[in-house]
Amino acid sequence: MTSKCQQNLFRTANINYVLIGALLSASIISHLIANRLVGIVGFPVIPATFSYMLVFSLSDILASLNSRRFVIFVLLGEAVTNLVWFSFIMGVTSAPEPEFFALGQSYQDVFGSVPQLYLANLGGGLIISIIDILLFSHWYKTKKFTFFKASFFSTIVSISVYTYFTDYFGFRGNYPDHVMLLAHVNAITNVICVFCYSVISAWAMKHILNYVHQQDTNSGVYHDQV
To answer: Residue 226: inside a domain, yes or no?
Structure first.
């Protein structure tokens, strides 16, 4: 029995490594492209939403396999990781350059607004992410909701507050006349992404649970609902 428990812990650790790596990658990518807008059917869309909503789904999967404290530490690590890359980029951007280097202002134009976006996300995103984990864990582990329902509803509740807070403080400096339009469009794209990622995550959870408990299917091991 001890050996089986150790095998489950080992497999869970392997899944954790992959999930944490993917979560940090999605978060860093989101911050790198956060100030870039694209036009889709005439509406200004923030493409970072497609990668940052994935962070919520990945953190929910982590919360289904681990304690809430562990996932909260991961989210704190995410914030520190973004601070490290942000500090490095700002240091490089503000460093003196050779006379023949003609792209210094271009880097400043691209990354100049990153501090404001980072602070807005740190103030809103980190808190909301922790709230999302608390809601998800309560509905999934205590109320026994299916993974899809717990993940979808907890994230929808969280981003309903997060979207307008972070968009207003993150974009009011660069786009004061369009900040509410950006927030409205971003709220819609967030909901669409959350639904799609919740479906994909629920499918992935079935395979993850089968992997973690693959040798325990005949031993009365409980498989959480997906």
So the answer is: no
> Tokens for 111?
């990354």
Residue 100 domain-assigned? yes
Global confidence as pTM: 0.84
Sign of the torsion formed by the C-alpha atoms of 158, 196, 56 and 173: negative
Contact 26, 52 (CB under 8 A): yes
What's the rounded Cα separation, in Å, for the pair 25 and 33?
12
99 lies in which domain range? 1-221
Written as tens digits, the pLDDT of the chain (226 aa) is 467 778 888 889 999 999 999 999 999 898 888 888 999 998 999 898 999 999 999 999 999 999 999 999 999 999 888 888 888 888 888 888 888 888 888 887 777 777 767 776 666 678 888 999 999 999 999 999 999 999 999 999 988 877 887 787 777 777 888 889 998 999 999 999 999 999 999 999 999 998 888 764 444 444 455 6
